[in-house]
Design brief:
single chain; Porin; eight-stranded antiparallel barrel; 2 helices; elongated; DUF3575; DUF3575 domain-containing protein; signal
Amino acid sequence: MKIPVLLTACLTTFCLTAFTFCGFAQTEKRNVIKTNLLSPLLRAAHLNYEYGLSKKTSAQLGFMYLFGVQQTDTKFTGFGITPEFRFYPQENATQGFFLALSPRYQSYNLEVSITDNNGNPATAEATWSSVGAAFLVGNQWHFPKSITLELYGGPSYNVGNIKVKSGSEENFNVGFLSGFGLRFGLMIGIAF
């Protein structure tokens, strides 16, 4: 129950902060609220807010929530928080080609259906938390009516820790959450 409350509080704060900057939005388009178009495929929800700090830089904060994603036998439910710093070499922050450094914190509840020592069905449970970072390359386009489209990708690295509540560590498949990986996305948003 704590995760939905935390997520709601974070999203509310995020939206209020976005609307605070509406005065700048009419002329500079320094703000972008966006979501990942790939999220429904992953049974996830993403919400990101980007703010132009200068002509060449911006900061972004992203929230992600997974709604019971299945990886082999392991079910993941939880959230991730992704702050990001972006550099736009063409001096047009929030628009065009960018390079980004993107750390991430993730926290998931894990469940696996197992058979206990007596042959009865049971559920193994654990929590997984990780920290990591990615180096991203991408482009964000602005279209009429303040619509944005962004494509990005790049290598990532994560390290994590599993805490078993029931069952054993061998019951859980978390290998894809650790080590080197690839982070990518296709975002749609509104600039203001």
